[in-house]
């Protein structure tokens, strides 16, 4: 079965140099880099959400970023950029006030405002409420260029977009244990705020997990739902602090991506394993201490509102009437118990979405993969294809095994975006009107 017909500038008008799937921090940083480094390129971004939003379900009052404001979407690449966090503060009239906070870590609410402020600058290039449903390779023929065809669906139906290059930044997909998936009364922390309305005074809630979002959720519910009873179900003996010490934190520095990429696979795996506590199932010490303070005061007063189930796992949940009956396995005592709850909140992490889920069969077959089935990705985050001439498909959010712990984080986005944009080839006659292809 042949690939799609080749791209022809003469015959296809719905053609852009660069198409971005998703418009979260990754692709916003790319849009900024394109404006500053390659303004001659045409670009179009497709975001399934109706408007910009980044982890909106976790914009809890008092929650702060775990990354310095200096690691915004641009400063490490271009500290003079008009898109820096300090430029945002200056425009909003809060630069001096923020400086008086004496912190490197803005609130999550304020950083979300910063991201939204950056996104608004590219509103004309972003198609909100449109989802890319399929990616197809277009093989070059004659003097035409290789590219991709995107099948896009929105409120007005479906249309086709042709792009010379694509960056897939579909974001992270919330993970819920299979035994709990789809159960009534069970939801992920990414949906915490929209579900707060279901928690009435005195609600009984289980928070499953040992990471940052689990600790924040337990603290937040305890403080904001009067008389609530919170069960923290933790697979460890206790919550572990994130390692943000300066030498270890250098694992996120842009200059260390090169050495990580060139290291043997066994060394890369060792770094990811040894330093997982910088990002996974780890909590800011201040939040752990805040939870412990609540737990201690609860014992002191005898309120019985905060319960810690250490070395435990929630293995099932059944909705009986208006109650969620949760079965908990306590590994330390080798016992099982049941809890009657009003809600179960899963702080059970995320996984990067896989670009292969959007590809047609022939495009998937042309992919180069490694022995473990992972994509063969080069230093510039490009997927390899078994073709003599292939367009560039970038998958930066899927590159933790090859590029390090910063792959899904904000830390390296500014520099990474510059590398991706600078790697794009130069084409003639790239400025084409966007109209429907016949």
UniProtKB/TrEMBL annotation:
Keyword NADP: yes
Source organism of this protein record: Rhizobium helianthi
Family classification: Belongs to the lysine N(6)-hydroxylase/L-ornithine N(5)-oxygenase family.
UniProt-listed SUPFAM superfamilies: FAD/NAD(P)-binding domain
Family annotation (Pfam families): Lys_Orn_oxgnase
Keywords, ordered alphabetically: FAD, Flavoprotein, NADP, Oxidoreductase
Protein name per Swiss-Prot or TrEMBL: Lysine N(6)-hydroxylase/L-ornithine N(5)-oxygenase family protein
Pathway listed: Siderophore biosynthesis
Cofactor(s) in the UniProt record: FAD
UniProt keyword annotation of Cell membrane present: no
Superkingdom, natural source: Bacteria
